[in-house]
Amino acid sequence: MLRQQAVTLVLKVIAAGFIVIFVMHMCLRSTSSFKYKKDEWLKFLTYSGISYSYPRILNEIKESNVNECVPMIQQNLHEEVTDTLLKNVITKCMHSGVIAKPVLFNMSVIKEFMSNLSCPSATFLKTPRPLVALASYPGSGNTWTRELIEVVTGTLTGSIYTDWNFKGSEMCPARGKIYIVKTHDPNNRTVSHDKCREMGIYTLNYTKAVLILRNPYEALLAEFNRQQSLHNSWNPGVGLAPKSDFETSRWKKFVKKESETWKNMAIYWLSIFRKPVYVLIYDALWNYTVIEMYKLSQFLNITTTLKSLYCLSGKGVGNFKRNKPKWMAIETLFDSRLRKVVNDKIRSVLQVYEIPELYSYILSEC
After folding, report:
1. Which residues pair with 136 in a beta bridge?
2. Over 60: is that where the pLDDT of 47 sits?
3. CA R_g for the chain
């Protein structure tokens, strides 16, 4: 309706402009005093008429476009998201100017048009589901990913460890109350949870796995910060190691040892696990959260709604993100010898499993 009104308004302005121009042209033809300036007057009248109406026309067209994007989301808020539905919503929102590219689709950009939308808290499973490993090298965003998964699935996640910040980690995953299980181990045999040991459970039977893969340079730095700040911060998830720690042999030994662990972690879940594995690239998840979580939900066989995707934008995540000082730059902390060590581990993973993003992580060794 608004688009039709905007088009009608444009046509009226154009018609009025031609009438004004025609009348002035006839008057000027009979008036010799305007003989040398009539062209300038015609241009002035034409442009002034259009420039006066143009901003209003644009606003109405913009309003019309936005009102194509938002109602479609509101009408399908509780519907199961499919490729077709998501494509149609993205197309509408692109035409409206809400987003510029499909990969930039994020519910937070239209949050201002939504109201009275509550996002429920995650709960334990009512019916057991096959276990899925949420595997990653430490410092790769496992905690943040668990938060996102709990929003999208509506269920709590667990861990092979007794984590301090997740309700789902309070019980053994084998009890059937959770099915997404955090692990940092390069195997599927270890269970360190106290509650599991009390039940005599030392292994878990994963039916599939999600491997969170982060740039090893970033992951190694994050894990070193966590380990070094264990005794210096109330929250080791955001703590930083002092600059002096990077100037000792402790840092070099850490990189050499832990880069091997990063490699073994990736190779095990990518090639040795022998069951379905979904590779979740950390950078893609960070930049295109909604799209990546929709793709992950398909792998998990979870019914996703536009509301659950919308709730991703309202979730208060990021409490575990470290704000690093300028001196804590990858290019500075990893000298040529350490770069060679890490690059070799990246190449080892690429020999086993072709992941295009890994090539961009290789740094110059000069």
Report:
1. 212
2. no
3. 29
Output the CA–CA distances (angstroms, integers) from residue 128 to 131, 173, 296, 301, in the order listed: 9, 10, 20, 14
> Of residues 6 and 107, which shows the higher confidence score?
107
Distances (CA, A) of 39 to 25, 44, 52, 348: 9, 9, 20, 74
Instruction: Identify the pLDDT of residue 103.
Output: 77
pLDDT surpasses 70 at 185: yes
Q: Please provide the DSSP assignment of 166-201 as one string.
A: -GGGGS-GGGSS--EEEE-SSSS-----HHHHHTT-
Helix axes 38-75, 83-96, angle to 10 degrees: 150
Q: Which residue is it, tokens 């099915």? A: 179
For residue 81, the cross-strand partners are none
CB crowding 11-28: b at 16 or more within 10 Å, else e: eebeeebeeebeebeeeb
pLDDT (0 to 100) of residue 147: 92
> CA 184, CA 359: separation in Å to the nearest integer?
23
pLDDT digits (tens, 9 = 90+) for 239-269: 788 888 999 899 999 999 999 999 999 999 9
Q: What are phi and psi of 98, to 5 degrees?
A: -65, -40
